[in-house]
């Protein structure tokens, strides 16, 4: 593979999340505050846990204790999360995932993190991929949970959703968000774990409906398939047995197309949120994913 | 009961209070008895009439200040039906309310006062209005956005909770609640308004309604209130006053067109290297077109200022033609020349378009292409800083191919990859959607901002800043408020509280366990009273008639005596029981209930008279206060009892046992320990003993022994009671296998019997079983290695192979010590074995669904739950060496402190559990080496699943013999002579199976074929395993004893099975054919045999399934030929649908 050895020039700029980069430090601090950034743990290596759509950093609560000894864990909320002041969600800025990537990179810069392991769930997996493309040296490894480069079906590519279905979902969200949450949460959790359903419903419901809808649109409008090859960091794709949002073929697609060395970890547990519904096995796999040498 | 106006006013914020005052004055004027919702609305209509056109004209627009009261006016003007003229409808409304008010009952005293011209008392607030206020208060509490205000107001006070209760109702909320009042909505209906319309209009003020910054949007309503206003607010917080509607509409279609252009612009404007954008991604083409459009339309807003005025030249078409060969080189050259000229300040961008075209081009046009490329390179050098080049590619692969074709071009052209990931594919772009979101429920009236309203926008910036500052506060509040339904406290807080409570009781209980040993309980009497009440209650609820019947029909004094006996032991650890009783009444109530049952039996002719005297003699040794009572107790029975000489010895033994515990209790003197008599917690064997006695002397003796136990050693009272009662019950009913088993095996009730019973249950691993039994007896007789306090928990480590054997020993321990299988908790701490082979035979055999229970639970919590639920149990933790961090920490803490913390930090008492921790690793020898010369490894057998089996006739016996000769070991020759043997040959089927197996193993660790295997495998889990190994070593130092297990000789095991098969085969099929069992099939059979204790079921399977299929196969094919070879193979890709009875093997074999 001749081009694997090439060094790539990718965008190096770190656009700060909020405004110009004049007073980077204060902006960074403000951002840390806004996104409820926490850094916990006693280890040397930095582990970033980034939650997915419909959850917030509390989704990692059950996973977190296992990594406090060996890692410094960075937790933050995506700007769309329910526990971030919705006023900060700029509808003109967060039209693409790149804005979220800006946020992530700004957070890591503000914390002075120069290399880290990144665990991203769902939309955060996409964000992680883009961030790793932009700052290849920052990410030692990407662990992608329930990740999909593209949710919509497209020719041979089976993303799992037809456009019509998605529009229906959006219509349902618009019509009655609460009802949609009640229906969607058990579906997403998949496994019969009431606690996880409750928790996911709570965080999903915490999102302001319009933001939730807007983010879904952004996510479904994103297509990372063309850029997967730009990722240089080794990746681990964690795929559950029965994920409503991500069919197994997508995991295989990721493995085939991600530029870094990619391994696929299959979880026997069901559902889109293994860290909520099957924390024990998820922790195990995550541990292995983190410790396996790159 | 009407509420005084002052009280109601206290619940309201300023505006709402003003509205209420207005209502009160209306009511007062009309001399009404109460102030109702109608009054509030009427007052609001009067005060806000200035804001609706018809009346404003009449009254002169005096009240032009956009008074808060005009919320209603605004809403009405937008909600009104367009059928009538506005003036008419408002007039009608006023009239309707006037009429409605006229119907209100008046109060005589007020009327008088009014007539006299003085002011009467303020008419109190009616119930319905008060209810509305309460409703609005509640709904406001649910609304996070308004909360901070109240917290602000009240924060100097008592804080959170109280400030909620004191939430002041805003007018908007009050209005919404009032509109729900049927009386009010009827009046509105009379006037041609629908109150739902009005509500919507209130909820959704038109955008400029932001002038009521505090009029909070009502978040729990999801119908329609998102989009427009929210977008508007964001616009405000970003401090840019944008015309709301188009912005909001644009926001709703979340395509990243503008964003992409901005990014391209950023790259172009760079001073440093990498200033020529190369767009990569599915949306790249679109983004490039968008950008071209932006430049063409000179829409400079999205681009950095230095790029304003830039030009874009596209040679996309030319490049495309280049690849098809039909291009005119000259034309391109000319275009490029033009480019060079154009490239003056501020500059020009050369768009080469899709790289795919260049990549796909035929070989002959490569010359032209490279010519073009070098020309562009030259131009870029010449016009550095003023000329850019950009291109795009849908996939990264195309770009890489392009680079392969033109190496170093990314450097020469100074390219910057820009991933474009947002696709604009009409999602949410349907023109109707945004507008429908916007317009739904927003009537046009009041939609467009007017001059005076825009003033409000500025004023509203301030509050939003304020809100921003309160962000944190609000976030925390949001957290606590969202998700709560109607309760004052959020659901999970309730939950947490409950958990805390539980926690408390656990802690209390655990504490009691400790205190009990040395503390004196002063108010024992009182507690006992409580306790006995509780017990009686328990009896009555569970078994009322029994209890009552026993009370009446049999010896009533017995129970009271026993109670006194209990309470008498004031100084003794009996307190333990009483205190326990508070925490967990269940075991005691069961115990007592059984005592009652027992006492029924006591009243029967009994046999123990002389022994009782003996007993009493012994009892006097004890320095117990309960002695006296004890004596009373037994004396009370003596009348009924008859002598039975034969029973003497046995009972004496019992008594010795009873006194034996005494030193243990004091935990210093081990007088009897050397004699290895069973003691303290071997009271677990009580059921068997009592059962034994029951057998000998009938039920009465058992009861005596129970009371005996109770009086002499109250520490174990709870357990011995329940156990004894179990024993009694089961012995009586003659149903329980366990107790009868135990009865046979526990006659001596000592260590030897424990060993022998263990060995009987565990066919193999005798040494280990003996070692385990010895360790337990050793521990239970009181020599503790940990700490000075008496701890009932025992920790054993089982090391070595033989997973099933370890488990069997542990189960046998649980069964013999506690008498019932339910006291066995088995948790596999290794995720791998638990889930790795979900369908393997060995895992399925333990029907206790480990997986089901630990679903969605951490192992720590799972263990903690089991510990808290089961009073005494054998906790069998498999693969401790693979335990996760939390379990490791908790176990370490538990072994040191006797408390097991769960993941939330709650601590569970160990409840005198016996912990058995297994690990596959061994010290010293490495048993795994045996795998090398053994045909079967434990690993493979553990992995064997209940695959479907297939049997077929070997086409050519010669080859079979040949391959047999080459692969089989001499050991199997004999077997071959017996016409059944195991084959290791690879058939095509087993090839499949091998690949299936590979897939199975690699499903966990995916190997990258580009790398050496050891690179992936070698470092796997290095840090974790190091940590775990160190922890494991430390931990094993702490356990009471470690027991090493030997590996199972599977070859011998297989031989014995083959012999069985052979025997069955010979007698049923005949000696003229040979059965060859494939390795995998044999592993499957071995797994089934190993994991089930019942060889009979296996032999049944051989007869019923295997032999039958063989015969059938022979009949089908050429029954005449001799020396057939039948091959039995496992189809590893399919699992058997049905299991044969009693054994986890397929119920049918496919005949091929």
From TrEMBL, chain A:
Domain of life: Eukaryota
SUPFAM superfamilies tied to this protein: alpha/beta-Hydrolases
Sequence ranges assigned to domain AB hydrolase-1 in this UniProt record: 47-283
InterPro entries: AB_hydrolase_1, AB_hydrolase_fold
Keywords for the protein's UniProt record, in alphabetical order: Hydrolase
Any Pfam family hit: Abhydrolase_6
Keyword Hydrolase set for record: yes
Entry annotated with the keyword Signal: no
GO molecular function: hydrolase activity
Family: Belongs to the AB hydrolase superfamily.
Protein name (Swiss-Prot/TrEMBL): Sigma factor sigB regulation protein
Organism: Musa troglodytarum (fe'i banana)
């Amino acid at each position: 593979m001749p081009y694997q050895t090439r060094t790539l020039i990718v965008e190096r700029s770190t656009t700060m999340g909020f405004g110009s980069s004049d007073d980077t430090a204060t902006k960074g601090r403000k951002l840390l505050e806004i996104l409820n950034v926490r850094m916990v743990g006693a280890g040397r290596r930095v582990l970033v846990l980034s939650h997915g759509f419909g959850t917030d950093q509390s989704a990692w609560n059950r996973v977190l204790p296992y990594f406090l000894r060996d890692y410094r864990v960075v937790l933050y909320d995506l700007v769309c999360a329910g526990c971030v002041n919705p006023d900060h969600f700029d509808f003109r800025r967060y039209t693409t995932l790149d804005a979220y990537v800006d946020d992530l990179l700004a957070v890591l810069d503000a914390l002075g993190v120069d290399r880290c392991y990144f665990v991203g769930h769902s939309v955060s997996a996409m964000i992680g991929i883009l961030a790793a493309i932009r700052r290849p040296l920052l990410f030692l490894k990407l662990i992608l949970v329930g990740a999909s480069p593209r949710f919509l079906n497209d020719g041979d590519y089976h993303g799992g959703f037809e456009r019509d279905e998605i529009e229906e979902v959006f219509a349902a969200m618009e019509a009655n968000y609460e009802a949609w949450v009640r229906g969607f949460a058990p579906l997403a959790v998949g496994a019969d774990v009431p606690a996880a359903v409750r928790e996911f419903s709570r965080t999903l419901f915490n999102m302001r409906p319009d933001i939730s809808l807007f983010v879904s649109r952004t996510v479904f409008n994103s297509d990372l398939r063309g850029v997967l090859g730009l990722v240089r960091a080794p990746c681990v794709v964690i795929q559950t047995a029965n994920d409503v949002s991500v069919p197994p073929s997508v995991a295989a697609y990721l493995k085939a197309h991600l530029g870094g060395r990619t391994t696929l970890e299959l979880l026997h547990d069901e559902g889109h949120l293994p860290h909520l519904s099957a924390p024990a096995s998820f922790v195990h796999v995550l541990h292995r994913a983190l410790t396996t040498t790159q | 009961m009407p509420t005084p106006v002052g009280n109601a006013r206290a619940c309201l914020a300023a505006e709402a209070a003003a509205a209420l005052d207005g209502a009160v004055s209306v009511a007062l004027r009309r001399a009404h008895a109460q102030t109702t919702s109608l009054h509030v609305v009427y007052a609001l209509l009067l005060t806000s009439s200035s804001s609706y056109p018809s009346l404003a004209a009449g009254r002169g627009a005096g009240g032009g200040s956009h008074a808060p009261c005009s919320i209603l006016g605004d809403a009405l003007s937008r909600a009104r039906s367009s059928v009538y003229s506005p003036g008419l409808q408002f007039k009608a409304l006023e009239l309707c309310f006037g009429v409605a008010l006229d119907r209100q009952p008046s109060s005589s005293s007020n009327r008088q006062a009014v007539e006299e011209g003085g002011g009467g008392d303020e008419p109190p607030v009616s119930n319905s209005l008060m209810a509305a206020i309460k409703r609005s208060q509640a709904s406001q509490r649910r609304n996070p956005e308004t909360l901070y205000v109240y917290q602000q107001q009240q924060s100097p006070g008592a804080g959170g909770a109280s400030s909620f209760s004191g939430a002041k109702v805003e007018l908007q909320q009050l209005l919404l609640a009032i509109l729900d009042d049927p009386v009010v909505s009827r009046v509105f209906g009379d006037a041609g308004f629908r109150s739902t319309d009005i509500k919507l209009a209130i909820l959704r003020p038109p955008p400029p309604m932001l002038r009521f910054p505090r009029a909070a949007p009502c978040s729990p309503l999801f119908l329609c209130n998102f989009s427009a206003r929210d977008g508007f607010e964001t616009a405000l917080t970003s401090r840019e006053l944008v015309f709301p509607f188009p912005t909001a509409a644009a926001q709703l279609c979340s395509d990243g067109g503008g964003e992409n252009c901005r990014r391209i612009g950023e790259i172009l404007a760079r001073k440093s290297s990498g200033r020529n954008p190369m767009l990569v991604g599915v949306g790249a083409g679109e983004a490039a077109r968008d950008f071209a459009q932006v430049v063409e339309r000179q829409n400079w807003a999205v681009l950095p200022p230095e790029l304003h005025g830039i030009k874009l030249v596209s040679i996309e078409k030319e490049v495309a033609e280049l690849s098809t060969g039909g291009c005119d080189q000259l034309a391109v050259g000319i275009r490029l020349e033009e480019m060079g000229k154009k490239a003056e300040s501020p500059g020009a961008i050369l768009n080469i378009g899709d790289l795919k075209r260049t990549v796909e081009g035929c070989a002959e046009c490569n010359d032209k292409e490279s010519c073009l490329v070098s020309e562009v390179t030259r131009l870029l050098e010449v016009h550095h800083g003023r000329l850019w080049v950009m291109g795009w590619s849908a996939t990264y692969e195309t770009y890489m191919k392009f680079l392969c074709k033109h190496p170093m071009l990314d450097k020469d052209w100074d390219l910057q990859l820009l991933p474009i990931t947002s696709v604009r594919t009409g999602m949410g772009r349907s023109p109707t959607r945004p507008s429908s979101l916007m317009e739904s429920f927003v009537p046009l009236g009041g939609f467009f901002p007017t001059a005076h309203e825009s003033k409000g926008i500025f004023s509203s910036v301030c509050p939003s800043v304020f809100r921003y500052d309160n962000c944190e506060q609000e976030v925390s509040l949001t957290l606590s408020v969202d998700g709560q339904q109607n309760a004052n406290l959020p659901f999970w807080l309730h939950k947490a509280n409950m958990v805390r409570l539980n926690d408390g009781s656990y802690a209390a209980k655990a504490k009691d366990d400790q205190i009990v040993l040395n503390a004196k309980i002063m108010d024992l009497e009182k507690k006992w009273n409580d306790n006995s009440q509780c017990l009686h209650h328990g009896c009555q609820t569970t078994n009322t008639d029994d209890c009552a019947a026993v009370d009446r029909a049999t010896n009533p004094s017995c129970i009271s005596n026993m109670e006194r006996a209990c309470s008498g032991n004031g100084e003794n650890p009996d307190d333990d029981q009483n205190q326990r009783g508070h925490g967990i009444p269940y075991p005691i109530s069961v115990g007592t209930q059984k005592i009652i049952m027992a006492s029924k039996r006591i009243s029967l002719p009994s046999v123990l008279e002389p022994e009782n005297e003996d007993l009493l003699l012994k009892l006097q040794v004890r320095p117990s206060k309960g002695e006296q009572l004890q004596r009373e107790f037994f004396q009370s029975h003596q009348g009924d009892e008859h002598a039975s000489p034969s029973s003497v010895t046995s009972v004496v033994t019992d008594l010795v046992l009873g006194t034996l515990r005494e030193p243990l209790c004091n935990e210093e003197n081990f007088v009897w320990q050397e004699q290895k008599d069973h003691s303290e917690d071997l009271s677990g064997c009580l059921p068997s003993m009592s059962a034994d006695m029951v057998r000998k002397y009938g039920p009465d003796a058992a009861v005596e022994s129970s009371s005996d136990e109770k009086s002499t050693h109250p520490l174990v009272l709870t357990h011995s009671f329940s156990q004894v009662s179990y024993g009694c019950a089961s012995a009586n009913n003659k149903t329980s296998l366990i107790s009868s088993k135990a009865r046979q095996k526990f006659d001596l009730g000592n260590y030897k019997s424990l060993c022998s019973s263990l060995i009987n249950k565990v066919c193999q691993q005798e040494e280990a079983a003996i070692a385990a039994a010895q360790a337990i007896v050793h521990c239970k007789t009181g020599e503790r290695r940990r700490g000075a306090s008496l701890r009932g928990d025992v920790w054993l480590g089982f090391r070595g192979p033989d997973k099933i054997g370890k488990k069997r020993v542990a189960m046998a321990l649980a069964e013999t010590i506690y008498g019932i299988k339910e006291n066995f908790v088995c948790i596999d701490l290794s995720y791998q074995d638990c889930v790795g082979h979900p369908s393997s035979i060995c895992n399925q055999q333990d029907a206790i669904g480990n997986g089901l229970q630990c679903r969605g639970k951490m192992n720590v919590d799972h263990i903690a739950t089991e510990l808290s639920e089961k009073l005494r149990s054998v906790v069998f933790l498999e693969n401790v060496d693979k335990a996760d961090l939390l379990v490791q920490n908790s176990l370490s803490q538990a072994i040191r402190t006797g408390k097991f913390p769960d993941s939330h930090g709650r601590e569970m008492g160990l409840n005198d559990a016996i912990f058995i921790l297994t690990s596959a690793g061994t010290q010293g020898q490495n048993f795994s080496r045996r795998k090398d010369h053994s045909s079967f490894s434990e690993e493979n057998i553990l992995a064997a699943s209940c695959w479907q089996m297939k049997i077929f006739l070997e086409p050519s016996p010669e080859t079979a013999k040949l391959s047999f000769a080459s692969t089989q070991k001499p050991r199997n020759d004999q077997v071959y002579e017996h016409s059944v043997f195991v084959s290791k040959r690879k058939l095509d089927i087993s090839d499949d199976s091998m690949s299936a197996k590979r897939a199975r193993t690699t499903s966990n660790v995916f190997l990258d074929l580009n790398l050496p295997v050891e690179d992936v495998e070698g470092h796997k889990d290095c840090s974790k395993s190091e940590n775990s190994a160190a922890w494991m070593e430390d931990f094993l130092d702490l356990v009471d004893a470690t027991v090493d297990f030997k590996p199972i000789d599977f070859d011998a095991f297989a031989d014995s099975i083959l012999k069985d098969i052979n025997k069955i085969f010979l007698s049923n099929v005949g000696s003229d054919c040979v059965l060859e069992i494939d390795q995998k099939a044999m592993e499957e059979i071995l797994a089934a045999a190993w994991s089930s204790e019942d060889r009979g079921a296996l032999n049944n399977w051989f007869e019923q399934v295997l032999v039958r299929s063989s015969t059938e196969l022979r009949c089908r094919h050429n029954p005449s030929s001799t020396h057939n070879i039948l091959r039995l193979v496992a189809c590893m890709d399919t699992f058997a649908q049905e299991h044969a009875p009693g054994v986890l093997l397929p119920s049918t074999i496919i005949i091929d």
